[in-house]
Fold each of these.
Amino acid sequence: MLGFIISFIFVLVAILLLRQDWANITVDAPHSTVPPARLIIKDELSLYTGEADSKGLYLAILGQVFDVEKGMKHYGPGGGYRFFAGKDASLSFVTGDFTDTGLTDDLSSLSPAQVVSLYDWLAFYHKDYEPVVPYATGRLVGRFYSESGEPTEALLQVEAALEQGRRLKDQALAEKQHLPACNSEWNAARRGRVWCSTKSGGVQRDWAGVPRKLFSPGSGRSRCVCVQNSSMLENPNIQEYEDCPPHADSCPVRE
Ligand code: HEM
């Protein structure tokens, strides 16, 4: 019995010591099916730069922390992307601005489409790298996660922009299928022609359509799209080319 009690105390002390070593704060998820997240503060993250005396090699994106030790050649000392190590520089994943001011997690300047590409980077880290604790993502306390590991208002805003960006991307994709871009060619005198075929604008289809100008509302600018049927001609943003018969599949244009 005494042996059992001593072993029990030993295991308990070992667990407590381990927990202290792993994190400044550890928070249990509210639901037992969701693994606990390890919370990290900025100062601690800054120690993970991959330098000889550092604790390891981490980076954060959208407040989620990844162990990028296996990408040492990119993020470690001397690597082409070493400036990502030990911090959350989410903005620069989209802007490509790797200066001190560019390496920030302030995303307020991003458009919804840019937020979508930032989340593509997040998906890349989930796929190619390990979260800092098996089965649990590390979270950086700061702009995106509160001290209790809850999403902040800033993260909720970015997630709303992500939704909007994904919707716009889906709409653009549907429009591309519906109104594919025309083929075009130009000569030195800036005269050219636009025409439709069963493969134009990167869309393979079983119809060719006829060239029309599609105006983007508010900008006054137009681009050539292939229109399949006359019902679309009721769209006020779609106009015929001057000097081109309505059913011609090729029209002369001037830049
Ligand atoms: C917004 C701009 C850019 C960002 C944020 C970016 C970011 C990154 C990151 C994070 C990696 C490492 C990926 C990993 O962990 O495996 C990487 C790798 C790489 N990037 Fe970029 N990159 C950018 C632009 C470019 C450009 C313009 C080029 C080429 C002209 C380029 C060429 C490469 C190459 C060749 C690798 C792989 C290097 C290797 O395997 O040794 N990147 N990039």
Amino acid sequence: MSIGFINGKYVALDEKAVPIEERGHQFGDGVYEVIRYYNGEGFMLEEHLERLEKSAEAIRIDLEGGIDSIRTIIEEGVKKAAIPDCSVYLQITRGAAERNHLFPKDVPPSVSMTIKPMAPFSKEMLNNGVSVITHPDERWANCYIKSLNLLPNILAKQAAAEKHAYEAILYKDGKVTECSSSTIFIVLNDTVITTPLSKQILPGITRMAVKEICEKAAIRFEEREYTTEELFSADEVFLTSTTSEVLPVTHIDDRKVAEGTPGNLTTLLMELFKAKTGQ
Ligand SMILES: Cc1ncc(COP(=O)(O)O)c(C=O)c1O
């Protein structure tokens, strides 16, 4: 059964537990993580916690008890929920205080969490790949922070859905950055290519897993900027995220990627990723 948690209390997901003057609610003043559990094990949990700590530091939220207290909250929650295959959404905000842009004094951060079952990913999407659109990257300059402020991401993903597409590949100044809620990769001449880490993209944990897999399997992996023209001429395209895992992209803006079917390297990476998660 799905469960919720807020500031030390377990609650039902529909319980009215958040004060109106909560800064996450009024300003989006907070950060979050999404962690996938496979068979009761948090996949790359430490990497997620490290990214969360960096996000919180970047917006100057002090975590009382540090990241260890967050690990404890997650681990206890997963045990209580007793769902071996679940996704954990963990959010930290600057707390509840009278609405004012300035940081409130002596107000503790709010920590909330939901834990929900994860069904295996749609076989059809895995086998056939997904369609995506391209969309301008209209986000701010600090996309490495996993901030609650997701308005441009929401608008891009909605634009994709309205064109019956799964995701929006974002581009800025003619270069591909990432997707609205995932990392994007192309394959050119048997080399897996993805945008280098910078303040302009979120350092994806699944991206990190794919990089490790490529290194182990001696698959050429390159981190460099690439253009939308290269995207359209790629031999293969795939996207990654905690919830989408490794997913082939077979159509972009209604144009086929190569033959319009998942590529060989993508299929291999899907298998190797599955093995890494213990599935
Ligand atoms: C903008 C963005 N990029 C990339 C990702 C993928 O990150 P991860 O692999 O850690 O889920 C996400 C995940 O939510 C995201 O929102």
